[in-house]
Amino acid sequence: MNNNYLKDQGLDKLINNDKTNNSNRIKPKYDDLIRLHKLILKRKPKIILEFGVGWSTIVIADAINKTKENSILYSVDASKEWLKRTKKLIPKKLKKFIIFHQSDVHIDIINGQLCSLYDNLPDIVPDFIYLDGPDPKDIQGNINGLSFNCSRRTVMSGDIILMESTLLPDSFILVDGRTNNSRFLNRMFLRKWKMRWDRIGDITTFELIEDPLK
Questions:
Q1: Phi and psi (nearest 5°) for 176?
Q2: In the chain, what is the straight-line distance between the N-terminal and C-terminal CA atoms, in Å?
Q3: pLDDT of residue 23
Q4: C-alpha–C-alpha distance, residues 145 and 4, integer Å
Q5: Burial of 159 by CB count in 10 Å (0-12 exposed, 13-18 middle, 19+ buried)?
Q6: In the beta sheet, which residues pair with residue 204?
Q7: Which end of the chain is less packed: N or C, by CB atoms within 10 Å?
């Protein structure tokens, strides 16, 4: 079934166009990418914020192209190297849908809880957020000796907490893995979110359940 969807949507050619023979190439997780592609097609978000570049960037851009909604993807990553690699994989027809944004990321505290925060984010109000970054290795600094270099310390992104108050009703968040981070977000959120945890798929989703502003 996955192979059929990949071929029907033309994703097989997009995902397998990496001819760099790079030994550090991350293999695509097809189930995750198909799920992401379907969600963008279904929800038709106008402004998408992605934490962590990669194959997902290409898949999101392809879905935007197919929705014909004049949407835009802001893709944030701390790694200049991964940004460079991903840019090389983007087909020319999809580049206009993506704005890449590089930012360092540091350890910080929100409401007494250890987390990570990007130093500089695009000044947007997204209605779809895909959380798959940062890489713990990219998180700089320590607090009282605690850092994310410790292999037993799970990544704990706090950026969405900062922007929660300005997100609009019906905003949607997809967290790839990072179950501990999802539970952290659920505890810290102040607004009414509907959380769903798919243990088998290893993803968590949040939907902001509020009346429209108008």
A1: -90, 110
A2: 41
A3: 45
A4: 50
A5: buried
A6: 175, 197
A7: C
**pLDDT, tens digit, for every residue of 75-85?**
999 999 999 99
Contacts of 64 (CB under 8 A, 6+ apart): 40, 48, 71, 72, 73, 94, 97
pLDDT digits (tens, 9 = 90+) for 145-177: 999 999 999 999 999 999 999 999 999 999 999
Average pLDDT across the chain, whole number: 92
Task: Count Cβ neighbours within 10 Å for each residue of 75-98 and write b for 16 or more, e otherwise.
Answer: bbbbbeebbebbeebbeeebeebb
CA angle 164–162–57, rounded 5-degree value: 80
- Position 25 scores a pLDDT of 56
Rounded Cα distance, 209 and 196, in Å: 13
Closest CA to 51 of 82, 25, 27, 5: 82
Residue 24 confidence (pLDDT) = 54
Q: In this predicted structure, what is the pLDDT of residue 21?
A: 46
Q: Is 22 helix (H, G, I), strand (E, B) or coil?
A: coil
